[in-house]
TrEMBL record:
PANTHER family (UniProt xref): GLUCOSYL/GLUCURONOSYL TRANSFERASES (PTHR11926), GLYCOSYLTRANSFERASE (PTHR11926:SF1392)
Recorded family membership: Belongs to the UDP-glycosyltransferase family.
CDD domains: GT1_Gtf-like
Protein name listed in UniProt: Glycosyltransferase
GO MF: quercetin 3-O-glucosyltransferase activity; quercetin 7-O-glucosyltransferase activity
Keywords of this entry: Transferase
Length: 448
């Protein structure tokens, strides 16, 4: 263990952010760096599985009572006030510790305060981006997009103010908030994210959980306006950094159910850890899936479908042809690796996109919000590893796109070629591994 270097890793306290930052922390531990991983007290109580060995875990209050629903804006508000005050106090004590003081912070760029506070205290801080580089670039360009009126709404017009994407990025593919309106330019969620991206792009370095082979042009554009950029992903594909404790209990029973199916005969469906859909949207997905005739495994988190109890959802799936299986939370990486799964109907969250890409699995994307609109455009129009349903939620479209993704040799070939390249990227001499080594050297130099 390198006693002179002690990194505090602090993710935005949501599943899709904890996972990649925990994989990053584990990769640091693997090369002998001392790491403290910071959760909120609420999450630390919920985390079902043990963390990887060698990590010190600490927690701060997020300022909300346990039963609070923690919707984005209320949660952000509380983290920026109560959370940030607790973080400042903790950081001060960690920096002044007589034994192995913290020498460097890697914090999630979703929380500008998590980078600005250490900088105020004279501790180097790096920003970790859990989104794709392409969506990060779209967020960086948001002020200009708003100024020129190229704001997110449901139009097919091409956007000219995101460099490198002028030929294929439409307004429909721009980051979107929860409340898509015809104007769409004042969405508080998107503006909040854009502001955070603008502020954290000033950190002394940006770390992306992506591979240069996937996003070289976007990374180059981001790098041209910032201090240093490291593309070290997909982190979960590094064999020694596969940790991801879940905030929900994983239902492993679905693996035996998958064992009973033919190769590539099952559609896996998950919309990630944050999306909440209406009952009408649930019904469109269910009808479309049932019409394909394929068996499907659907991860339906409690509370994911507005106003509908889990029992009613299971009943509806059971009544729709008898080929569906519901779990509240799936062991997703194992599911995507299973020979019976033929495609993934996903919201195109960046972790799900990377997990799919590493397995060479065709995707059908129904992006929900924030970065997912941009990710899904890349899947459908740039990488061609899947199909992008975009903002359309109709049973006929679900049926058609799932059928096509299950049957298309072109899509499967593109997905498998990408998987092969990503395996090379994370191999010992690959570009992501070299970038990780460069990053560890950078952190060591900052820490002296
Ligand atoms: C959002 C953003 O869209 C994403 O880009 C950002 O980086 C994090 O927040 P989220 O809804 O959390 O996304 O989705 P995603 O990024 O795909 O992360 C979900 C994680 O939960 C994945 O690692 C996935 O494997 C895991 N998961 C999901 C399970 O393990 N089981 C499930 O049933 C569903």
């Amino acid at each position: 263990m390198d006693a002179a270097v002690h990194v505090l890793v602090f993710p935005w306290p949501r599943q899709g952010h904890i996972n990649p930052m925990l994989q990053f922390a584990t990769a640091l531990v693997d090369v002998g760096v001392q790491v403290t991983f910071l959760h909120t007290e609420h999450n630390l109580r919920r985390l079902a599985q043990a963390h990887p060995p060698g990590l010190r875990l600490l927690s701060i209050p997020d300022g909300l009572p346990d039963e609070h629903p923690r919707g984005f804006l209320a949660f952000m508000e509380s983290m920026c006030t109560a959370g940030s005050a607790a973080y400042r106090a903790l950081l001060l004590s960690l920096v002044c510790a007589a034994d192995a003081p913290v020498t460097c912070v890697v914090a999630d760029g979703t929380m500008p305060f998590a980078i600005e506070i250490p900088e105020e205290l004279g501790i180097p801080a790096l920003s970790f981006v859990t989104h794709s580089a392409c969506s990060y670039l779209a967020f960086l360009c948001m002020p200009k997009l708003v100024e020129l009126g190229e704001t997110p709404f449901t139009a097919d017009d091409l956007v000219s103010s995101v460099p490198g994407m002028e030929r294929f990025l439409r307004r429909r593919d721009l980051p979107r908030g929860l409340y898509c309106t015809e104007q769409g330019d004042g969405d508080p969620l998107v503006l909040k994210f854009a502001e955070a991206v603008g502020r954290t792009s000033k950190a002394c370095a940006l770390i992306f959980n992506t591979a240069a082979s996937m996003e070289r042009p976007a990374l180059a554009h981001v790098a041209s306006g910032t201090s240093d950029v490291f593309a070290i992903g997909p982190l979960h594909a590094r064999s020694s950094s596969a940790a991801s404790p879940s905030l929900w209990r994983e239902d492993d029973g679905c693996m035996a159910w998958l064992d009973g199916h033919e190769d590539r005969s099952v559609v896996y469906v998950s919309l990630g850890s944050l999306a909440v859909i209406t009952h009408a949207q649930f019904t469109e997905f269910l009808s479309g899936l049932a019409a394909t005739g394929y068996a499907f495994l659907w991860a339906l988190r409690p509370g994911m479908v507005q106003t509908t109890s889990p029992a009613l959802l299971r009943e509806a799936v059971g009544a729709a042809g008898g080929k569906g299986r519901v779990v509240e939370w799936a062991p997703q990486r194992d599911v995507l690796r299973h020979r019976a799964v033929g495609c993934f109907l996903t919201h195109a969250g960046w972790n799900s996109t990377l997990e799919c890409a590493v397995e060479g699995m065709p995707m059908v994307c129904w992006p929900f919000f924030v970065d997912q609109q941009t990710n899904s455009r890349f899947v459908g129009a740039v990488w061609r590893t899947g199909l992008d349903m975009k903002d359309v939620c109709q049973r006929g479209v679900v049926e058609r796109t799932v059928r096509e993704a299950m049957a298309s040799d072109e899509i499967r070939a593109a997905a498998q070629a990408m998987a092969q390249q990503l395996r090379l990227d994370v191999a010992e001499t690959g570009s992501s591994s070299s970038e990780l080594e460069r990053l560890v050297r950078f952190i060591r130099e900052l820490s002296v």
